[in-house]
Specification:
Blueprint lengths: L1 H8 L8 E5 L13 E2 L3 H8 L1 H8 L4 E4 L3 E2 L2 E2 L4 H11 L5 E3 L4 H7 L7 H11 L12 H12 L4 H18 L18 H14 L1 E5 L12 E4 L6 H5 L22 H9 L5 E3 L11 H12 L3 E7 L17 H11 L4 E7 L15 E4 L7 H9 L28
Parallel strand pairs: 1-3, 2-4, 3-6, 8-9, 8-10, 10-11, 11-12
Antiparallel strand pairs: 4-5, 7-12
Helix pairs in contact: 1-3, 5-6, 6-7, 9-14, 11-14, 12-13
Organism: Phytophthora cactorum
EC number: 3.2.1.21
Protein name: beta-glucosidase
Length: 411
């Protein structure tokens, strides 16, 4: 896959693929964005290295390191992994960029430097980072100048990085055309793009449970639709959509997308057999009055479709210490199920959030993952049998919390 992705991205001659995040970022024991990782050489070389090795073999032009420490050494200052393994053993000579402000994190998080200048010195003298990704201050530039003033023998080291950066710009033609592809912007969101995104969404959604074959629903079935994700495209997309932490509650920002509610109404012809009310927040909060209204709707419907899951997040702000969904979400759905309606849960989530014993109270569970703008249509089509769910889980989905230390992948 890494080989194919790199070759595909770079096939137009004006795009540099970036392999990320180098390396072992998916082994964080807590799933947090910044963590200390312990790994054997055997596991690193046999389980974590192969996709990067394939990317290098395909000619990947750039790479990004990450926020972790490996066996006690922050990656951004880890000579063994950044130089010996990547540059020497794999023979890669592409441009290496840090993850956001990671050199500064040698002082702020890893605590191996007292100042930003010292952090810059440590990184530049120990590893072959070429670019510091930080847009809000000039600490890296100041630290580099300070290093060269105090230790001019490192000028060759800085020039080596400058050569790699300039080489990449020349390869991409950036000196002749600083904004390549500008003329193609209007092609984004074409009919072909939309059709491809819809097909990907359809194929990625996973049916986890379907007791008594409650799915697919008949178009004239009595259905109550509820849940915070039922009418919110932003919650179908997650983080890094519109902005860093995602953007929920503003469907107008997603002109090419549609919600579950809109598509269910389209499939059923706005039938009076479908009702909608949501009194639930993705934090799990709801009022007694809203719960009473929701349970009244549920009691009158043969089926209740509850679209729940995570709010949008990315990186550190998305860290969690408990994989369970917010308790309020679980309780809200259980209260609906207690009315006798047959509950179908639809999840929109970036991680396998634990459902506990909720699955005992519901008839069906669909994991929509983060199918994004086309996710609402894809889920609605699956609910009503227009599309057969064919997705398979790419991850382990636990029923109960782990009883021992267990790696939770968040990326």
């Amino acid at each position: 896959m890494a080989d194919a992705i790199v070759r595909g991205l770079q096939s137009n001659g004006s795009t540099a693929a970036c392999m990320k995040h180098w390396i072992v970022y998916t082994k964080t024991p807590t799933g947090h964005d910044k963590d200390a990782v312990t790994v054997s050489d055997y596991d690193l070389l046999n389980y974590f290295l192969p996709p990067f090795k394939a990317a290098v073999g395909a000619g990947v032009l750039s790479a990004m390191e990450n926020y972790i420490s490996v066996n006690g050494v922050p990656l951004v200052s880890n000579t063994k992994l950044m130089n010996a393994l990547l540059r020497d053993d794999l023979g890669w000579d592409g441009m290496m960029v840090t993850d956001y402000a990671e050199i500064d994190q040698l002082a702020d998080f890893h605590r191996v430097a007292r100042t930003y200048d010292e952090a810059t010195r440590i990184s530049l003298t120990r590893v072959s980072v070429d670019m510091s990704m930080i847009a809000t201050d000039d600490s890296f530039m100041n630290g580099t100048k300070a290093l060269l003033e105090q230790s001019p023998q490192y000028l060759a080291r800085v020039k080596a990085s400058a050569r790699r950066v300039v080489k990449l710009k020349l390869q991409l033609g950036l000196y002749d055309n600083p904004v390549p592809g500008e003329a193609n912007v209007d092609l984004i969101g074409s009919e072909n793009d939309t059709a491809t995104a819809l097909e990907l969404a359809r194929e990625s959604i996973v049916l986890l449970k379907n007791n008594d074959s409650v799915l697919p629903l008949a178009e004239d079935a009595s259905v109550f639709l509820t849940g915070h994700a039922a009418d919110d495209i932003g919650l179908q997309c997650g983080g890094w959509t519109i902005e860093w932490q995602g953007y929920a509650g503003h469907n107008e920002l997603y002109p090419l997308g549609s919600t579950m509610k809109e598509n269910i109404e389209s499939i059923t012809g706005n039938s009076s057999s479908v009702s909608y009310f949501n009194g639930l927040n993705y934090t799990g909060e709801y009022s007694d009055a809203d719960l009473a209204t929701a349970t009244e709707y549920a009691s009158r419907a043969e089926f209740t479709v509850a679209a729940i899951g995570e709010g949008p997040y990315a990186e550190k702000p998305g860290d969690i210490n408990d994989l369970a969904l917010p308790a309020g979400q679980i309780e809200y759905v259980k209260q609906l199920a207690s009315t006798g309606t047959k509950v179908i849960v639809v999840l929109f989530e970036g991680r396998p959030r634990l459902l506990g014993d909720l699955t005992d109270s519901v008839y069906a569970v669909i994991d929509g993952l983060l199918a994004c703008e086309m996710g609402g249509q894809a889920v609605a089509e699956i609910l009503y049998g227009k599309v057969n769910p064919s997705g398979r889980l790419p991850i382990t989905y636990r029923r109960t919390p782990p009883t021992s230390r267990w790696c939770i992948t968040t990326q």
